[in-house]
Model the fold of this input.
Amino acid sequence: MKIIIFLFIILSVAQSLGAADKPSAIALEWWLRTQGKFDGAIVCTKEINGKFEIIEWKVLGVSQPTNAEVEKIIKDYEKTKSDKRVEQQKSTNDLDYKQKRAREYPPAADYLDGIVKGDQAQIQKYIDDCKAVKAKYPKQ
Done:
């Protein structure tokens, strides 16, 4: 009995994960929100033979899109989502090099100490150390 319940849970989770790959309702919500028309909207979709069809559409001021338009909306939504992921990854990469540099830069106090003492060798060492860190972690 425990094995059957366990298999049922696994199948349910797998099915729900598969549904996340087919974002017809989410894509339509995104599309309506971009037009400022989502408030009060009622939209129900259903997948039939690998295509999404609208089975209920109640949206004031927006006519129901055709099945071909729904497919285009889904593609546009997925492209927008993909573009956002690329932007987030670039932002993360930028942050990574900044964090790495920050950890390895010599303390600014070393530079100020060299200035106060008039020690050109200490000042130059600080500058050289900073340049080495920049070379090690270039901007991406």
Q: What stands out?
A: Residues 88 and 94 are 10 Å apart (CA to CA). The longest strand covers residues 51-58.
